Amino acid sequence: METLDERSLRLLEYDKILEWVAGRTQSEPGAAALRAWRPLTDEVRLESEHQLLAEALARAREPDEWCWTGRGRLEPLLAEPAAEPLDGPGLVRVRGWLEAAEQTRGAWSGQGARYPGLAARWGALVVPESLLARLRRSLEPDGRLADRASSELARLRRDADEHEGRLREFLQRWARPFGEASYVTRAGERWVVLVPAAGFSRRRGIVHDVSGSGQSLFVEPLEACEGNNRVIETRARAAEEERRILAELGAETRAQAAALLELQSALAHLDTLRARALWAAEVGARALPTGHQAEAIALRGARHPLLLRGPSADRVVPLDLELRHDARVLLVSGPNMGGKTVLLKTVGLSAALAASGLPVPAGEGSRMPRFTSILVGLGDEQSVEKGLSTFAAHLEALAGMARVAGPDTLLLCDELGAGTDPEEGAALGHALLEHFARRGAWSVVTTHLGPLKRVAGAVPGVVNGTLEFDERTLTPRHRFVPGAPGASYALALAARLGFPEELLERARALTPDSARALERLLRELESARGEAETRERGARAAEAEARRLADARRAEQSRREAADRESRRRLAEEADRLLGRADALLKELQRAARRAERVDAQAARRQAAELERAIGELRPAPEPGPAFEPAPGDRVRVLDLNVEAEVVSGPDAEGRVRLQRGSWRIQSHRTRLAPAGAGPASPPARLWEAATGLPVGAPLPHQLSVMSVAFSPDGRTIVTGSDI
Prior knowledge:
- The chain is α+β, with helices and mostly antiparallel strands.
- It is built from 19 helices and 22 strands.
- The strands form five sheets. An eight-stranded antiparallel β-sheet has the order 19-15-16-17-18-22-21-20, with helices on one face.
- Strand 11, helix 14 (about 420-440) and strand 12 (about 440-445) form a beta-alpha-beta unit.
- The radius of gyration is 49 Å and the shape is flat.
């Protein structure tokens, strides 16, 4: 990035975005780095930032922490000369950054396969282990030196505590005769006793102070002077040892200043990546790598980030915009209050964020070329100091754009040709648009001038665009419409805002016929486009409703089929149970026949009839079969049994048919029947053998009455009969 000056960044409100993202950091250096962030000029570093950002966005979607930092900054402690003392609290600050580096390195170790960029940089942090170990051993959390800082310090502190303990015990004994109001306390560095002033002999001790009331004295007994001196001397030697240790720790720390500042910088950089990932999740942004190979500006669902902060964030209309390599100049026209400036800022800010390695609030499929220059001409930029009027400032910005226009530049100009005579402004704007297109510069230009709306048809590389506007309510819809210019609606908006009608009539009369015709044509075009889109939305809605209903029918059909299968399964189980009962009955008849016992044929018939009714009621719903409708008296083939029989009655409402074959009485279903002479559809029925061992239906001895029952393999056809 060669040219993106502070003025252009300010017009795009770039610093407001940086401040927003910096608020998501957890360290002072990280926040400061983001506030000073600018588009990157080094292509290698920009590509690296995009890779790291993409990995950070993925890592932020996972649990567990992956970035730690210390408190404060290290520069004031390590600079020469130091702005802050490298004392105990300062060394604790250094230790905090070292511990953060150690934790961060541990979190990224072994993550190279999933996050190669992040793991390579932060999984291999070089931490001065010996310095960290000594700071941990020597310092308490509040910055005081620990006894373990040195054996000499521990000994001196222990001696001082012992001397002080013995001294206080002596003073407590000495104070008892003076009553409960007397106690041991300090006066400066020396231990004393509070005693009543009345009657106290000054020869017994040294008076260090008098109470506010004058009724008590702070006295150091003469016998305690040596003990106090010993305590003070020991404490002084301990303090000297502390100063020696702190100086030694400070020197060792300053010797590692370069490594420590590099660690802080690395952790602050990771902190910025974490903040960028958090911000991206908050606003729905993504990494948008740039490259010279990109042959288009493509924004899918792009939003201006600052619009997402307010209460109307859910009503922001996303921007879908595309400029191809052969049509790089976009001329946006339409009424005021329609959102043209927001469109221009959204494109420019998206390009600046992408060029900075920051997330861009845009959807999948968005892409952006790599620009060497981004120039912005926006709004009222008059300068009293420079003696520039609004139009002069506008011309100065346009002149800068004309100088840098090229294939790798992005030029953003608001209200081209405004601020001067409309004809001259339009002529100047026309010349600039031709220049931008001829140089192959990527450009987004807004205008209200009617003559410029015709440039797109006359200059290759220039395309029109507008923002959808509701002609009925005269309110913007903020949706970008490519390929067509927009009407200004100036007189209609003036009428809505209460402009006098007679003045409006006069203005209409003074408007040139060509201008009125163009405005009318543009309004008709917008109206037709709106109607077509309404019809298209209706068709899409109808199609979606049809798909929904079809899906619902399929789901209902699947549910019914599943219920039918479950019903068949239960009925089959019940049929098996009844078949078992029938089998047991026939076996009992066989045993009775072998014993030459008289079988009660009537009882057997009744039991068989009951089984027939039960099985008939439990028979599963028939599957669709041939379209054959038998009638009483027809000869049909029972497909389950592979036999022919005569229809006695049916079919009834449920398709059941009763048939007769000799002494057999058969109950079946119309779907299991075929005209006589048709081939078999399934194996013959299995028959239980009667008392003589012959199949049912064979001649039996006349003295034996036997009831026979037969079932097809699937239990759908029942055969009963008797031979007397």
